[in-house]
Write a structure and sequence with these properties.
Strand content: over 45%
Shape: globular
CATH class: Mainly Beta
Largest sheet: 5 strands, antiparallel
Helix content: under 10%
Number of domains: 1
Number of helices: 1
Length: 83
C-alpha cells in the first residue's frame, strides 16, 4: 500500500474535489475538478476545459465523460500548469 492506495479506484477517490487531467480516445484532453465517478469510470468534472497542445481551447463547465471514452486520468499533482 502506497499513500493509502490499494486498488485502482482509490486513486480516483483520493482525487475527488481536486483537478485532474483526462486523456480521451479522440485525442482530446480535458482538465477539471473531479466531482464524482462510478465503477465504469464514468466521471463528472466541474469547471472543465478542453486542452489543445497545452493551451486552453474552450471552457465547458460542468460535464459528464463516459468511461469508455477515457484513456487515462491523471491526478492534479502531475497536471502541469502553463503560464
Amino acid at each position: 500500500m502506497v499513500n493509502g492506495i490499494e486498488r485502482p479506484l482509490d486513486v480516483l477517490n483520493n482525487a475527488k474535489g481536486k483537478e485532474v487531467l483526462v486523456q480521451l480516445k479522440n485525442n482530446r484532453q480535458m482538465v477539471g475538478t473531479l466531482l464524482a465517478f462510478d465503477i465504469h469510470i464514468n466521471i463528472v468534472l466541474d469547471n472543465a476545459k478542453e486542452i489543445n497542445e497545452g493551451e486552453n481551447k474552450r471552457s465547458i463547465g460542468l460535464t459528464f465523460l463516459r468511461g469508455d471514452t477515457i484513456i487515462f486520468i491523471s491526478p492534479a499533482s502531475v497536471v502541469k500548469q502553463e503560464d
